[in-house]
Amino acid sequence: MIYHQSIKLPYRYTAGEANTAFLMGLVEHKILAGPCGGCGITVAPLAPFCTKCGSRLGTPIEVGPEGSITTWTTDGQGRNFARIRLDGADTDIFHLVEGDVAVGARVKPIWHDDPQPEITAITRFAVV
Ligand SMILES: [Zn+2]
Hints:
By secondary structure, the chain is mainly β. It has one helix spanning 16-27; strands at 31-35, 42-43, 61-63, 67-74, 80-86, 93-98, 106-111, 122-127. Strand 1 and strand 2 (42-43) form a beta hairpin.
């Protein structure tokens, strides 16, 4: 016998300094990244440490807002999700994408009418 049930799991998320700066930037239609003084890459989205070498990242900089799709997938329900290399960044962000999705396609963010400090401040990216 298999018994299917849902459980409620309340939680609080503490974003931390870097993620808070990233999320607050989205409210102002800015996508923030962090330059790494250790290996020289620019990490987007902004994080406290470099994803390549582990060094603490420097003063946040703005990247994008446009970028190029590096890879993508579908959920089988008509939605496509892509890794996007924003202009000026060396790492990818992951988001919903609409349009003729293809590796290398240029995309731009579609901002929420009333952006809040969460990733849905960008409702999706659109192929340009
Ligand atoms: Zn680094």
